[in-house]
Amino acid sequence: MGERLRLVLADDHELVLQGxxxxxxxxxxxxxxxxxxxxxxxxxxxAAQQPxxxxxxxxxxxxxxxDCLQEIRRRGLPVRVxxxxxxxxxxxxxxxxxxxxDGVALKTAPPRQTVEAIRQVGxxxxxxxxxxxxxxxxxLAPAGxxxxxxxxxxxxxxxxxxxxxxxxxEAIAVSENTVKFHLQNIFQKLGVGNRTEAAAYxxxxxx
Length: 207
Prior knowledge:
Elements: E1 5-10, H1 14-24, E2 30-36, H2 39-49, E3 53-57, H3 65-75, E4 80-85, H4 90-99, E5 103-106, H5 111-122, H6 133-136, H7 150-160, H8 165-172, H9 176-190, H10 195-205
Parallel strand pairs: 1-2, 1-3, 3-4, 4-5
Helix pairs in contact: 2-3, 7-8, 7-9, 7-10, 8-9
């Protein structure tokens, strides 16, 4: 990618935030544009900075990482979310998937692995610990409508109906940037390169 990935970080431990900032500060393709120590501050930060990726601790006082993620998705904020957790058990992974996480990274993993997970999430891939792959199943499979969220199906339906990005945004009450974000995800998940191919997929499966 030509541009640097813009990141925001959230953890209720200042020491962890400082460590992440130091780690990521050495990466020429990554830029930390803000950090928060609680969920409410993170939501404000995302709205203000419009980053590419939010790296969020699952366990935070008040609004925790999963609650934050659900609120990000509810508001339609165009950001990819990588959750950080010390626990790689099935319950955490399942909850992250249901909330719409783009990835989960373990705090116990080597630092380089976490940096690579951030890059991959920024590039649109779903990133989860190897032990969680069987829980994820079809969602990691390339090019499939089963991977689309309900909101993405809604955007795809409007696109297939011939609406422009601005018209889709008005119809579903989100910003045009959010529509572009959804379309980027839809194209990637379906393995298509343009609106015509995406519409053709819709008519083949739902038409």
